Amino acid sequence: MSKKKKIIMSVIIALIIIAVAGSIAGYYILQPDKPWMALYLAGSGGIIAFNLLVILFFVNKNMRN
Questions:
Q1: What distance in Å separates the CA atoms of residue 18 and residue 36, rounded to the nearest whole number?
Q2: SS3 label, residue 1
Q3: How is the chain split into domains, by residue range?
Q4: Backbone dihedral angles phi then psi of residue 34, each to the nearest 5 degrees
Q5: Of all helices (H) and strands (E), which one includes residue 33?
Q6: Largest Cα–Cα distance in the chain?
Q7: How confident is the model at residue 61 (pLDDT cuts 50, 70, 90)?
Q8: DSSP labels for 38-59?
Q9: What is the CB neighbour count within 10 angstroms for residue 5?
Q10: Coil, helix or strand for 51?
Q11: What φ, ψ does residue 10 adopt, rounded to 5°?
């Protein structure tokens, strides 16, 4: 695996972790006051994490070694 590919994959994995952690934290912070906004925030974080997973798959598949 090339060095560029490892760096790109590490950055994408870090972004996935940040998005998931932020959406979980936001959900639990907003849940008592605004439950619909908390659900919207958690859903948005899930969609972002899923999109980054798709990007990770295509980077892994299409980048040359």
A1: 22
A2: coil
A3: 3-62
A4: -130, 85
A5: none
A6: 50
A7: confident
A8: HHHHHHHHHHHHHHHHHHHHHH
A9: 14
A10: helix
A11: -65, -40
Which residue has 């659900």 as its token pair? 39
Ramachandran assignment for 34, one of left (phi > 0), alpha (psi -120 to 50 degrees), beta (any other): beta
Q: What is the pLDDT of residue 62?
A: 84
Q: Tokens 């908390």 map to which residue? A: 38
* Amino acid at residue number 49: A
- Write out the two tokens for 62: 């299409």
Which residue's entry shows tokens 């598949």? 61
d(CA 35, CA 42): 11
pTM above 0.70, yes or no: yes
| Token duo for residue 41 | 């925030």
Lookup result for tokens 């994490």: 49
CA–CA separation, 30 vs 32, rounded Å? 6
